[in-house]
Amino acid sequence: MSVKKIAVLTSGGDAPGMNAAIRAVVRTCAYHNIGVVGVYRGYQGMIEGDFKEMNARSVRDIINRGGTILKSARSKDFRTPEGRKVAYENLKAAGVDSLVVIGGDGSFTGALLFNQEYGFPVIGIPGTIDNDIYGTDFTLGYDTALNTVIEAIDKIRDTASSHNRLFFIEVMGRDAGHIALNSGIGAGAEEILIPEENIGLKKLLSSLEKSRSTGKTSSLVVVAEGDKIGKNVFELKEYVEQHHPDYDVRVSVLGHMQRGGSPSCFDRVLASRMGVKAVESLLEGKSNYMVGIRSTKMELTPLEKAIKGSSKINTELLRVAEIMAT
Ligand code: ATP
């Protein structure tokens, strides 16, 4: 089948670099003289027929913008066979024959189902700040989020050291500790709590005590939101205060600011490469793959593997973090 028109959508949580990826998909289509439509609000827009014909000029001035001009959404209707049928009919009516989905593993699961039911060619681009997708060393938005986080922690460090305080800083990442581990090292945290490594409350206390005894007057502890230590950051604060009433403990939950902002150069280049690879893979007749980057090279991973696999934490970084906290 020759590809005549591709639809592109962003789905699930937004991430910086999604716009740069939309731009890359649209421009690659223009380069190869094939049509492209943008679908608004992810799968929900597919069901509601919320499409817009795009060309190379429709994506001007967006490479530097966070969020997604196509908007993102979570669609309950797309989880039903009836919803997917309407989506398929809308795409057919618009002359669309292939799909690029920019999103996370949930979005890829939907894309795979859609392919299985209608034989519709699909390629995924991993867009999430969490870096928790198998088959790529980096997801889109992760590098920008790391930079946002260390900028915020640097500022917290100023106030922490001025008041000799201990700060628990919660960062995003869902069930993965990539953001916490890397930003923790990058921002010079004393301790980093991630779901992949349950250090336990006792060890946390002894580590903080050791920090004090070696002359540190303030401490930063970066905590991944999915940490399995059994306590959230506010409970951690209470726990430490119970055992060390003399500690001046504060909590900062960075929250959604981590999702926003202008994408880093790394994410813009990654998005551009992923967009080109996604469209050209469809043109080569490939389907049901996720585009990723591995050891600086663009690679395809079967969507099924990307969904089921998990991204591993780099254990060397754990050791670096431990040594840096000396
Ligand atoms: P994030 O990593 O930000 O959560 P995600 O792509 O994993 O992104 P989800 O909310 O899990 O986000 O999925 C996005 C959308 O994909 C859902 O709202 C739904 O429309 C579709 N989807 C997810 N899982 C399925 C499924 N099992 N069947 C059909 N569609 C699905």
TrEMBL record:
ATP binds at G13, R74, S75, G104, D105, G106, S107. Residues 5-281 form the Phosphofructokinase domain. It is an enzyme of class 2 (transferase). ADP binds at R23, A24, V25, V26, R27, R157, G188, A189, E190, K216, T217, S218. Substrate binds at T128, I129, D130, R165, M172, G173, R174, E225, R250, H256, M257, Q258, R259. It is found in: Cytoplasm. Coiled coil: none annotated. Its cofactor is Mg(2+). Pathway: Carbohydrate degradation; glycolysis; D-glyceraldehyde 3-phosphate and glycerone phosphate from D-glucose: step 3/4. GO terms for molecular function: 6-phosphofructokinase activity; AMP binding; ATP binding; fructose-6-phosphate binding; identical protein binding; metal ion binding; monosaccharide binding. GO terms for cellular component: 6-phosphofructokinase complex. GO terms for biological process: canonical glycolysis; fructose 1,6-bisphosphate metabolic process; fructose 6-phosphate metabolic process. The keyword ATP-binding applies. Homotetramer. PANTHER family: ATP-DEPENDENT 6-PHOSPHOFRUCTOKINASE (PTHR13697:SF4), PHOSPHOFRUCTOKINASE (PTHR13697). Belongs to the phosphofructokinase type A (PFKA) family. ATP-dependent PFK group I subfamily. Prokaryotic clade 'B1' sub-subfamily. This is ATP-dependent 6-phosphofructokinase. It comes from Capnocytophaga leadbetteri. The gene is pfkA.
